[in-house]
Specification:
Layout lengths: L3 H24 L4 H25 L12 E7 L4 E6 L5 H17 L7 H20 L3 H10 L1 H11 L4 H29 L7 H7 L6 E2 L2 E2 H16 L8 H8 L2 H26 L1 H27 L4 H21 L8 H34 L24 H4 L1 H14 L6 H14 L3 H7 L1 H18 L15 H19 L2 H19 L3
Antiparallel strand pairs: 1-2, 3-4
Helix pairs in contact: 1-2, 1-4, 2-3, 2-4, 3-4, 3-11, 3-14, 4-5, 4-6, 5-7, 6-7, 7-9, 7-10, 9-11, 10-13, 11-13, 11-14, 12-13, 12-18, 12-19, 13-14, 13-17, 13-19, 14-16, 14-17, 14-20, 14-21, 16-19, 17-20
Length: 523
């Protein structure tokens, strides 16, 4: 019976989306309340199931040995299986996805435009995300990866901002290009493995022994490259990052939360779940390049964040920067220094989870002020439609008017810049420890990102919250009870894991130790 939890986690949102159709006939599709309640109940049940899974989860067991595993023949003739399971790599992502999906429905409570379509698409997106993190068959993984594409396209394109159509098309094309390359890599793994299979556990044993060439190049290198580009676009790794800021700016607040909190992590998760264990020799050969790209992400994202005058765009570029820490920690898996590989890889996975909670909180808070002011400008652009406001601060002094909101923003900003005792600090520190053990010069350069982070966060805080109150905002009320209820769980997790990160470390360490052994056995 334990194994049914995994199937429910994936398909409960699908059931909720389908249930909205008869509900629409009963109450009318323009009545939003029924769809909101269906979505909140479904995501709430999913969160409860994720917590139950966590409570019974044994991190020392492999996927095959865990009671939380389902392995059934699906398309038997081609050896395709419905194979889902959970280990220390996927468990934190399952919890993060369930939590942010539930909170995002709360953020979406004011959605009145075509509510049936919005909440149904959101639940389908939720199912796709959960399916990716639980799939242990590459074919199944790819299906769920593609399932996410259409709901996200429509959620941005129909409920986004003024440039929503362009942002949605750009997101779709970038992601589809990566998916095509991933498909080619998946097919190559299938046809060159013996036996032909998509089973990721079996492929770990067979993929590294592939001995073939194409166009005079080693097939394993070509497979690695195809998979890397597919996953790099989702991270996103420079120079494939250009779709992200526009998608964030134009997306509704809840979708920005999911984009930054969950979808970006799928790129690094795919590398760790598929590329790392299947092609350990290529991981070793590519490690320096990955570390270099990580440092580029750290610095490029931070410099661009400093230049932004839109708070949402600033946070979007900060996500590019913070995912660079993940890449640096992942590259440290090749470290031969005692503890270096463990620190780097544990820091990378912890950063995936911690950044998910921190950036979700940041986007939620920006959504709060946007609902009141209908803009997010730190400074109005020079070509603003109202010439009297062009180039001037967008807010100023609202800290005195909205003290609770200001306190939460300060907390989230300090978490984002890696203040000790908050969760971002320990994960970034471990990434740097791992990176320094093998890429010392690159790591030293990468630490400049800490300073740059402080510049853009403190600059934004100064111009939005400090100084004399702009009379335009003198009647603003503080955060509502619902707004506070949505951000408090994230703030509690950020503080708890900053002071006591052991539960997260204990959850992920055994699986990552096994992955490190797989990589280092290829030396």
């Amino acid at each position: 019976m334990d194994s049914i939890i995994l199937t429910l986690l994936i398909f409960l949102p699908v059931f909720g989306a389908v249930a909205m159709l008869p509900a629409a006939k009963m109450v009318g599709k323009e009545n939003p309340n029924i769809f909101k309640w269906i979505a909140i109940v479904i995501t709430g049940l999913q969160l409860v199931l994720a917590i139950v899974l966590y409570m019974g989860f044994d991190p020392t067991l492999s996927v095959s040995a865990s009671p939380y595993t389902v392995q059934l023949d699906w398309i038997k003739h081609f050896n395709i299986q419905y194979f889902v399971g959970v280990d220390g790599l996927s468990m934190p992502m399952v919890l993060l996805t369930a939590l942010l999906s539930f909170l995002s429905i709360g953020i979406s409570w004011n959605i009145t435009k075509q509510p049936l379509g919005y909440f149904a698409l959101f639940l389908l997106l939720d199912a796709g995300m959960m399916g990716v993190f639980l799939s242990m068959d590459f074919f199944l993984f790819y299906i769920f990866w593609e399932v996410m594409l259409l709901p996200m396209y429509f959620l941005i394109g129909m409920w986004g901002g003024p440039q929503r159509h362009y942002a949605a098309i750009k997101f779709f094309l970038f992601t589809l290009f990566g998916s095509v390359l991933m498909l080619l890599g998946m097919l190559a793994l299938y046809f060159y493995s013996d036996p032909h299979t998509f089973n990721l556990i079996t492929l770990i044993q067979t993929a590294s022994s592939i001995d073939a060439t194409l166009w005079g190049m080693d097939m394993r290198y070509l497979i690695w490259f195809a998979l890397f580009i597919g996953f790099a676009i989702k991270v996103p790794i420079f120079p494939f990052h250009t779709w992200l800021p526009l998608a964030h700016v134009e997306a509704p607040t809840a979708i920005s939360v999911i984009l930054a909190g969950v979808l970006l992590k799928m790129g690094t998760y795919g590398l760790l779940r598929i590329s790392y264990p299947l092609l350990p020799g290529e991981v070793i050969n590519f490690a320096y390049i990955l570390a270099f790209l990580g440092v580029i992400n750290i610095l490029w994202g931070a410099v661009n964040a400093i230049a932004q005058i839109d708070m949402k765009k600033m946070i979007a570029y900060s996500s590019v920067s913070h995912m660079g820490y993940v890449l640096l920690g992942m590259a440290a898996v090749v470290s031969t220094n005692e503890g270096g590989a463990q620190a780097g890889l544990n820091g990378a996975v912890m950063q995936m989870f911690n950044h998910g909670t921190i950036t979700a909180m940041l986007f939620m808070l920006v959504g709060v002020i946007y609902e009141k002011a209908h803009h997010r400008w730190i400074f109005y652009p020079d070509d603003y439609k109202d010439s009297a406001l062009a180039g001037k601060p967008g807010f100023g002094g609202i800290g005195a008017q909205m003290p609770v909101f200001t306190a939460f923003v300060a907390f989230a900003f300090f978490a984002g810049l890696g203040l000790p005792a908050l969760s971002g600090f320990i994960s970034e520190a471990l990434c740097f420890i791992g990176g320094f053990s093998v890429f010392r010069t690159l790591t030293i350069i990468g630490t400049l990102g800490i300073l740059l982070n402080a510049i853009y966060f403190l600059r934004a805080y100064q111009h939005v919250f400090l100084g004399p109150l702009n009379e335009k905002y003198k009647d603003y009320t503080d955060m509502s009870a619902m707004d506070i209820a949505i951000v408090v769980p994230l703030a509690a997790i950020i503080l708890f894991l900053g002071v006591y990160p052991a539960p997260l470390v204990d959850m992920i360490a055994p699986s990552l130790d096994a992955l490190i052994q797989t990589i280092q056995s290829a030396f």
